[in-house]
């Protein structure tokens, strides 16, 4: 369930692009149990974890939310801010005390619009994370809800 070592890192971007983003970052902390966001609500920010862990979860009617992935050090929390309609596709909860860098989505989108090279790099970075997390969500849901022995994963 844990992500690959470079999956959400800002340093997956070029030094120039990473530096520009880090220039607008704000340091924040969340106690264990804090809900960072809820599925379906407005996505107006994102974070890079400095320390601690955050569970991404998905609402499952009639059941407890299914944990899709646990994120840790240097990983991106949230990508829904980049793609319209800017609503969260998952929920997120701090599973330990968390320290993170927080980014204002509107500011980053404006930076990306003003600099197409930055915009393309950020879109590629986030797109890679989205693809990996969708595969993770599918596999996790199959693990949780598919009948045992119902077939192999592709």
From TrEMBL:
Q: Where is the signal peptide?
A: none
PROSITE patterns with a match to the protein in the record: CNMP_BINDING_3
Per UniProt, what is one Pfam family of this protein?
cNMP_binding
* Cited InterPro entries: cNMP-bd_dom, cNMP-bd_dom_sf, Env_Response_Regulators, RmlC-like_jellyroll
Q: Which domain of life is it from?
A: Bacteria
SUPFAM superfamilies referenced in this protein's UniProt entry, alphabetically = cAMP-binding domain-like (SSF51206)
Cite the Cyclic nucleotide-binding domain residue spans from the record: 9-111
What the entry lists under CDD domains is as follows: CAP_ED
PANTHER family assigned to the protein according to its UniProt record, in alphabetical order: CRP FAMILY TRANSCRIPTIONAL REGULATORY PROTEIN, HTH-TYPE TRANSCRIPTIONAL REGULATOR ARCR
State the name under which the record lists this protein.
Crp/Fnr family transcriptional regulator
């Amino acid at each position: 369930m844990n992500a690959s070592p470079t999956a959400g890192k800002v340093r997956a971007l070029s030094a120039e692009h990473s530096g520009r983003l880090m220039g607008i970052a704000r340091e924040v902390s969340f106690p264990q149990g804090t809900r960072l966001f809820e599925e379906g609500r407005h996505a107006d920010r994102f974070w890079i974890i400095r320390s601690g862990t955050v569970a991404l979860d998905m609402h499952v009617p009639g059941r407890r939310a299914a944990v899709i992935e646990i994120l840790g050090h240097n990983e991106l929390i949230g990508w829904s801010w980049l793609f319209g309609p800017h609503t969260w596709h998952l929920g997120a909860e701090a599973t330990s005390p968390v320290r993170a860098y927080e980014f204002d989505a509107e500011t980053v989108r404006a930076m990306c619009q003003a600099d197409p090279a930055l915009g393309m790099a950020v879109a590629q970075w986030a797109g890679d994370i989205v693809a990996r997390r969708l595969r993770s969500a599918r596999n996790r849901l199959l693990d949780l809800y598919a009948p045992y022995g119902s077939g192999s994963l592709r």
